[in-house]
Amino acid sequence: MNDQKFFDRCAQKLSGAFTSEEESKFYDDLEKNPDQKSAFQDFEKQWETSGKLKLKYEADPQLAWEKFSELKSDDQPATVRWIHFATRLAAMILLTVGLGFLIREFGKNEPYHYATFEGETKWVVLPDSSRIKLNESTLLTVASDFNTEERNVSLKGEAFFEISRDESKPFIIQTEGAKTQVLGTSFNIRAIEEEDNIEVFVVSGKVSFSAKDSELILTQGMAANFDKTNNLLALEENQGNALAWHVNSLEFKDAPLDKVFADLQNYFDVEIVIANDKIKNCRFTGEFKKPKLKEILKVIAISTGITHTENNNSYTIQGEGCSPQQ
User: What pTM was computed for the model?
Assistant: First the structure.
């Protein structure tokens, strides 16, 4: 067996492409070749380390392997250095795990995929000069015919859009059950698969937000959400922190604490449980640059008298609460 075939088998094993019989044969061959066994163990460690950087959406190892196979050169020499194996395996890891990657599925009819992993944000510039900032754990897919008659993309996650104006080519963002269409504007879309709502907040220009047979026209400062459970499209109020992840800042102006804690949940990706409904009546004002959750909770506790307990990534808010405002 030449080195190239060995690399191919390693990548197939780690991507989950083997049948049980192929996997058994692979391990039998490793036992017969100590050098290859040692090399595979090194590859496996790299794979496991990268596996800790998981995206919130489901990766497709089989698709990753197929795309990787398409990119391989057919005229490579039979003997390849181990370091070349590691480099190409790293490419395989990027395709499968999403280590801050840009997957370019080469070919005229293939879409482009841009993605981020947990804790990462990144700017993407499209062929029409539009700029899009992806929040963590976000997948943006750009259609293969982008910028021909239309500019079509799809989004899973959250992103801030700065769209170059082109009246002849509308920019269309598909999200789960909803569509956002613009000519040229800036706005934020939150479309997290695990959440019940898709939210749009407009910074400038005009946006068409539609779902099923309903449509809302949004202008500067307006927000709307689509309830995926009930298929309801509605205007939304008090979206002052819709861009918090983008500007790295949180601001509250006489906001009820249930709204405050909802924004903190979104920004810090934690669970916050309010133990007493009266706490929701309390109101809070504050502004935080480069916010830190525990510091914010301390400030809220001082101003409202609430306390909290922490368990892993979950916070329980306790206290007497406040009387409803008249």
Answer: 0.65
165 plus 121 within the same structural domain: yes
Which residues form the domain of 259? 248-318
Instruction: State the CATH number of the domain containing residue 153.
Output: 2.60.120.1440
Indicate whether 87 belongs to any domain.
yes
- Per-residue confidence at 70, pLDDT binned at 50, 70, 90? very low
Q: What is the mean pLDDT of the chain?
A: 80
Residue-wise pLDDT tens digits, 255-282? 999 999 999 999 998 999 999 999 999 9
HEC assignment per residue over the chain: CCHHHHHHHHHHHHHCCCCHHHHHHHHHHHHHCHHHHHHHHHHHHHHHHHCCCCCCCCCCHHHHHHHHHHHCCCCCCCCCCHHHHHHHHHHHHHHHHCCCCEEECCCCCCCEEEECCCCCCEEEECCCCCEEEECCCCEEEECCCCCCCCEEEEEEEEEEEECCCCCCCCEEEEECCEEEEECCCEEEEEECCCCCEEEEEEEECEEEEEECCEEEEEECCCEEEEECCCCEEEEECCCCCCCHHHHCEEEEEEEEHHHHHHHHHHHHCCEEEECCHHHHHCEEEEEEECCCHHHHHHHHHHHHCCEEEEECCEEEEECCCCCCCC
Domain assignment of residue 37, yes or no: yes
pLDDT tens digit string along 231-249?
A: 899 998 767 799 999 999 9
